[in-house]
């Protein structure tokens, strides 16, 4: 078994992308999670970039245990000094220094001759070695560099004391076969290359960052630089979650390679980054996108329900994904519908399922996704119609409110033929009236969700209240519409309670289901 080291650069290259800047505290929060994820090296930032980044690297060096903490530095003594200073508190530290080796970068950007670049690289590496014996050197734009010169620079960097040699595809120009060949060529042409770890750092300008990284590993690279969700300069870097899971899932292809990543932490790490940066991944993103383990079409759903491996090459729980999700839509079939109803605690007979299925398809043609609440409403309409004499009705309510009054409500309700009265106070008039109804009912009703919106943009608009409640473990939703927001809320709440009571008795009536030939 050989290890592939995971070098995470979410907090350095990832942060370089527009809109992904993080404060020191946010970087620390992310770094602590990356340590839980099990990354081997954590590039905390570029200490010379700004006072803030210096502080962030220092904070992470102080607080984060486990991974090697690293800072980037140009091949300049002042950058290396700052990196070393910021990294000082770390238990294990790495200085990562770099300089471009391609003709175009040397001529137009650095305005340096190849000989000067070679000298600068040597000096930077040996200078960094004064501070730590873990020094990484990168030949920026390696894939567009002249081969013989690239070999020379790497050879001199190793002589100067580099312990990791990183080969970046800085502009995402390479293609997998070519990149694999470059790694092979470096291994065959650079003296003492076997004494150091070969690392790769690929960008995604052609959508090939992960493929290039994996092919490099197949051909001898043993460190991959990557970022959570693939964030990074321009189109981003290789996505950590994709590299790690490809190596894990395709051991038959990659051989006995392993990483130290605790894959169950992947999803959590991805979501944390999304929350911190406010930038969410696209739904179809591999491994961590919302749809990565979702199935909407009937044939797939039937397959997955029979055996998840029919359409899932990895277990969602292995990456910490909540679970594979059956999404109901116009492509879904009866197997999935039946399963969904069961998950919602609704048991129906075959005849009822047929009726619901027909209505469900009609609705799905009009609506992109069918949510649990839509399905619930449909089931109520088709098989659990509320009777005219509902268990609960509100006979009268009265609410007092004002800027100097504690909102107080009194209600008179009828519950199972019996009249009951109660008074309650609340944070506002709606809160007070709902609390009064709850008190009068004297049942264990928990309000889980409440929203109210105006259906048109005027002050005399109809208001629509939507509520979700739980009554003795049975969830249900209710809806009320009225020009008066208090009335809309009362109607919605009572609607939800009646549905919960009805559903409770419905679920319990197993005899009826058995008689009709149940599922
Ligand atoms: C491929 C990559 O991802 S490389 C990392 C990219 N990341 C960043 O650039 C983020 C952090 N950068 C910064 O905050 C700033 O660029 C700083 C603080 C580092 C430098 O700022 P400034 O001094 O104003 O320089 P500026 O950014 O305008 O230009 C870069 C300078 O560094 C030089 N330079 C670039 N790379 C290197 C290198 N690897 N080694 C030595 N010098 C370098 C350039 O030639 C240029 O020099 P000049 O000022 O003498 O012309
Ligand atoms: C600093 C180096 C490794 C880099 O980010 C790149 O070349 O893309
Ligand atoms: Mg980069």
Automatic annotation (TrEMBL):
- Sorted alphabetically, which keywords does the UniProt record give? Amino-acid biosynthesis, Branched-chain amino acid biosynthesis, Coiled coil, Cytoplasm, Leucine biosynthesis, Manganese, Metal-binding, Transferase
Its EC number is 2.3.3.13
Coiled-coil zones? 334-366
Looking at the UniProt entry, the stretches that span the membrane are none
Q: Which Gene3D superfamilies match?
A: 1.10.238.260, 3.30.160.270, Aldolase class I
Gene Ontology MF, one: 2-isopropylmalate synthase activity
Please provide an example of a Pfam family that matches this protein in its UniProt record: LeuA_dimer
Instruction: Write down the InterPro entries for this protein, in alphabetical order.
Output: 2-IPM_HCS-like, 2-isopropylmalate_synth_dimer, AIPM/Hcit_synth_CS, Aldolase_TIM, LeuA/HCS_post-cat, LeuA_allosteric_dom_sf, LeuA_bact_synth, PYR_CT
The residues that the entry says bind Mn(2+) are 13, 201, 203, 237
**Catalytic reactions on record:** 3-methyl-2-oxobutanoate + acetyl-CoA + H2O = (2S)-2-isopropylmalate + CoA + H(+)
Q: Regulatory domain: where is this region? A: 393-519
**Which pathway is it part of?**
Amino-acid biosynthesis; L-leucine biosynthesis; L-leucine from 3-methyl-2-oxobutanoate: step 1/4
Task: Tell me the GO BP annotations in alphabetical order.
Answer: L-leucine biosynthetic process
List residues of the Pyruvate carboxyltransferase domain.
Answer: 4-267
* GO CC annotation terms, alphabetical: cytoplasm
Enumerate the HAMAP family for this protein: LeuA_type1
User: What is the documented function of this protein?
Assistant: Catalyzes the condensation of the acetyl group of acetyl-CoA with 3-methyl-2-oxobutanoate (2-ketoisovalerate) to form 3-carboxy-3-hydroxy-4-methylpentanoate (2-isopropylmalate).
Assembly: Homodimer.
This chain belongs to the protein called: 2-isopropylmalate synthase
């Amino acid at each position: 078994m050989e290890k592939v080291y995971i070098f995470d650069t979410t907090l350095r290259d990832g942060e370089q992308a527009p809109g992904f800047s993080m404060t020191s505290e946010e970087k620390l929060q992310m770094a602590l999670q990356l340590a839980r994820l099990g990354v081997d090296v954590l590039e905390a930032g570029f200490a010379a970039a700004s006072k803030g980044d210096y502080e962030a690297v220092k904070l992470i060096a102080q607080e984060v245990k486990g991974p090697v903490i690293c800072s980037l530095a140009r091949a300049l003594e002042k950058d290396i000094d700052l990196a070393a200073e910021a990294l000082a508190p770390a238990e294990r530290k790495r200085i990562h220094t770099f300089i471009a080796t391609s003709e175009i970068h040397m001529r137009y950007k650095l305005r340096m001759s190849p000989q000067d670049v070679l000298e600068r690289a040597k000096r930077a590496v040996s200078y960094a070695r004064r501070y730590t014996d873990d020094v990484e050197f990168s030949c920026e734009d390696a894939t567009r560099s002249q081969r013989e010169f690239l070999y020379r620079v790497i050879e001199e960097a190793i002589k100067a004391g580099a312990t990791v040699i990183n080969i970046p595809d800085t502009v995402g120009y390479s293609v997998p076969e070519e990149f694999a060949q470059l790694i092979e060529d470096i291994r065959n042409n650079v003296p003492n290359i076997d004494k150091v770890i070969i690392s790769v750092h690929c960008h995604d300008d052609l959508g090939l960052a992960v493929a290039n990284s994996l092919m490099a590993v197949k051909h001898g690279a043993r460190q991959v630089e990557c970022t959570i969700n693939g964030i990074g300069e321009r189109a981003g870097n290789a996505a950590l979650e994709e590299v790690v899971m490809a190596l894990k899932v395709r051991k038959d292809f990659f051989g006995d390679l392993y990483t130290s990543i605790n894959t169950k932490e992947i999803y959590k790490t991805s979501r944390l980054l999304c929350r911190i940066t406010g930038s969410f991944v696209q739904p179809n993103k591999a491994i961590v996108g919302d749809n990565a383990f979702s199935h909407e079409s009937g044939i797939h759903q039937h397959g997955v329900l029979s055996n998840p491996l029919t359409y899932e090459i990895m277990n969602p729980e292995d990456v910490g994904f909540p679970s594979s999700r059956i999404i109901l839509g116009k492509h879904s079939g009866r197997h999935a519908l039946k399963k969904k109803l069961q998950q919602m605690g609704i048991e129906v007979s075959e005849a009822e399922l047929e009726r619901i299925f027909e209505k469900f398809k009609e609705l799905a043609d009009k609506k992109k996704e069918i949510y649990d609440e839509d399905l619930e409403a449909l089931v109520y309409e088709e098989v659990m119609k509320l009777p005219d004499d509902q268990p609960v009705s509100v006979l009268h309510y009265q609410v007092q409110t004002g800027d100097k009054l504690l909102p107080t409500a009194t209600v008179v309700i009828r519950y199972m033929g019996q009249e009951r009265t109660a008074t309650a106070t609340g944070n506002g008039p709606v809160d007070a009236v709902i609390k009064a109804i709850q008190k009068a009912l004297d049942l264990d009703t928990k309000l889980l969700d409440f929203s109210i919106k105006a259906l048109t943009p005027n002050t005399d608009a109809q208001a629509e209240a939507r509520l979700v409640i739980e009554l003795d473990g049975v969830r249900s939703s209710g809806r009320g519409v009225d020009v008066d927001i208090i009335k809309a809320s009362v109607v919605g709440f009572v609607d939800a309670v009646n549905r919960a009571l009805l559903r409770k008795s419905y679920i319990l009536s197993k005899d009826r289901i058995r008689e009709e030939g149940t599922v």
